[in-house]
């Protein structure tokens, strides 16, 4: 048995797949893990698609770890368009927001969410904006219309796009980075979880479509453990200077689809930031000349 590290982590989606692999890895490293799921093996059983389930999960986590928690890995998600909105986006953001103060009391606190390499594709703009506006009833209504129109497959990636954007908006703010809480995402490609094999990988024709839509030079499906390892690293002290990142662990899909595009143009600064940099550059030069 490994020596207990004294660190306590919360892992959602810990019943199977990536969540179970993350929880197992953290426990082997000596951490205490509060497993959240929907089966009898979970320490916290709750339906994260509903506000009541989310509140129940937070209360139970606090019962089990009343002082603080050191990290959360929010892995729970669903490819089912009918429940993806409530679970993938609103459930994840609700738990992050509710547990933020508990994290702030922890040692070297970390939060990692699971996105998806499917977020590289275009989503439904109305659904993404409804998520980011924190309007769950509107988001659900949009998702229902998409299903009715035969566009239900766009819902999953739209929730992950919204999650990426929420993370990028919030990771650097005072209540996250300013409070010492590192907030990152891991975006897996298609890996060999039981759910993936039962759904998207079950049909040979669908697999051919996926190979074009999300090409993975390192193979499809990929292994689960490297994804779990990336999440565990982002939860560890070794990731102490990393926040606001979406780490693609996708067998090469992101680089295949985007190439060098994200790095062709440099950052474009706004007028206020540019003016401040000019002023401080001038001040620095004047001080240098005066020997101060």
From TrEMBL:
InterPro entries (UniProt xref): KR_dom, NAD(P)-bd_dom_sf, SDR_fam
Per the UniProt record, one Pfam family is: adh_short_C2
Family matches, as SMART domains: PKS_KR
The Ketoreductase domain extends over 7-169
Show the SUPFAM superfamilies listed in the entry. Answer: NAD(P)-binding Rossmann-fold domains
Q: What is this protein called?
A: SDR family oxidoreductase
Naturally occurring in which organism (per UniProt): Promicromonospora vindobonensis
